[in-house]
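Ticket #4471: structure export looks truncated?
Reporter: QA, pipeline team
Priority: medium

Steps to reproduce: submit the single chain below to the structure queue and open the exported record.
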Amino acid sequence: AGIVVIVSFQHMSFWDSARLYQMSSLYEHVECVRFATECSGFRVKALAVFEEPMFFGVVWSAASLFLSEAFKSRLRLCGNNYAILEKLIGNTDHIPACLGG
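Actual output as written to the record:
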């Protein structure tokens, strides 16, 4: 049981990412994720990341050092394979059309 968080970087460019990083540090982003997964009142079943940029792997390598093994096991890097949502959610009626539902 738990919620499935869906993140899509479909139209995000490298420069958009650079502006996001300038607004706050990587550590602050990691702390937000940590709070959402460990301190909030809801359970995260999975975090599905779609259309991740090519440099996401580098950012993930650095950020994963600060995250728990439990959270890392819930992260799914999906690329453009939206069929994974059907496995995570189970019912395609709840998936928006823009995500393959």
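Status: closed, not a bug. The export was complete when the record was re-opened. Leaving a note from the reviewer for reference: The helical segments are 14-23, 26-39, 56-63, 69-74, 83-89.
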